[in-house]
């Protein structure tokens, strides 16, 4: 059983007691954290050739980031000037219709690699061609929940049967590091009947569900016009809410919607960068948290955020709440960090997101000397902890992440993802998108026109 020790370091546990160690040591055995303590390990441990020892001097050890709403990326920087509806019709849907297993594998390796480089250790990825998604996650070593983009047949995405096949092939792969949930695109490419089938399949497979809800005002207005109910109400009535459900976006919620999310224990992914870039608005974060809803954070597709960096996302997610409400006391670093780590792990059912003995060893090591991002920094432990939380949310980016350990395995060392040739991956993505962009031209479907017919 493999062992890893990181010593003489700052350790931000994010546990219930808000424990902080400086200087401290963390020991990992197998896929779990075995010990965390103040001070240094015994000298014989540091000299044991069977143990991987990492010097934590001028480093910070913290839980890996959990991207609670993720789509593998294929067309970042393409069509950025478009609002949500036009963007989906002209860029996103044509791109994912043009996929095949080979293209998806390249895109997933690129997406997981770039996410991992900036501190993400777990993704909740709704995309297509799950054989390729699972293979990419297995090869690169990231923790992943994968799901399909289930929609009505005329939208030429995925069918509910595709998602069932995905579950049977890949759920529990790599010792449980890879899960398969049901996925539902959104009400605008679906109907009540299909949502009820998704809810029933989720129950039959005893798995989770990743769903888009109330992302745009247009979506809510169209749903009210068609059904006289909000998307959240329909999700509730069709069995698409619950403690094993992640609802992405949830920007346009009524008070009753929030009550339903809280009542069912549904988790929400706060996706501030995507919501802002596509002009959809700002999540009612304070109201959701006050109601007891578990809120994590997600990048969405790189196309919607143009960066996989959740450190940048944490900063923006905090600042936009303070700006909207004109209140500098909101979205504190202490809370935002927990949303991006432990809340996401809780939503996905992984025993991670916290540094504590017995928890899964999903750990990142941040270089506190990187580009002076963590200067100044006091030595007094309590004041150091407060300053570190502030620097992490407001003052740094993912380029400071030096090492990454997922499921007890060192998957990134000295800023390099070990399983991937980055230069080859860069070339493969460029070559692949040249051909995919041409194929996209013949795969545009006006979803608004399709919906008006249905």
UniProtKB/TrEMBL annotation:
InterPro entries: Amidohydro-rel, Metal-dep_hydrolase_composite, Metal_Hydrolase, MTA/SAH_deaminase
Domain Amidohydrolase-related: 60-411
Pfam families in the cross-refs: Amidohydro_1
GO molecular function, one term: hydrolase activity, acting on carbon-nitrogen (but not peptide) bonds
Lineage: Eukaryota, Fungi, Dikarya, Ascomycota, Pezizomycotina
The protein's name in its UniProt record: Amidohydrolase-related domain-containing protein
Organism this protein belongs to: Capronia epimyces CBS 606.96
